[in-house]
Design brief:
Length: 103
């Protein structure tokens, strides 16, 4: 059975048509991309971000605080102020579009 985030791929060597000797077969597993995500922070109009804006290779169900170790700092353009992150930060890693900054 594969560990979380991976799936069975194939046996090596390939099974023969008949058994003619003692053999060892290895189960090979590969990353299941359907269970891994990225979190990207993007600034809306009238502002920018400083700091880390992208986190990759996050396994589904990972706690937000483990997946995203720091949130980028919003920097509002002159005459604007930071309002909110959209959507609101989840408790666990998302299966949703990137987080956007609203200024």
């Amino acid at each position: 059975m594969a560990v979380t985030g991976y799936k069975f791929d194939a046996w090596t060597p390939v099974f023969p048509g008949t058994v003619t000797a003692t053999a060892t077969y290895t189960a090979n597993f590969v990353k299941d991309n359907a269970q891994w995500f990225a979190v990207t922070f993007a600034a809306g109009t009238n502002g920018s971000l400083t700091g880390t804006t992208s986190y990759t290779n996050i396994l589904t169900g990972t706690a937000w605080s483990t997946a995203v170790t720091t949130v980028p700092t919003p920097v509002a353009a002159t005459g604007y102020k930071f309002d909110a992150w959209t959507p609101v930060f989840p408790v666990r890693s998302p299966r949703q579009p990137p987080i956007r900054l609203i200024l």
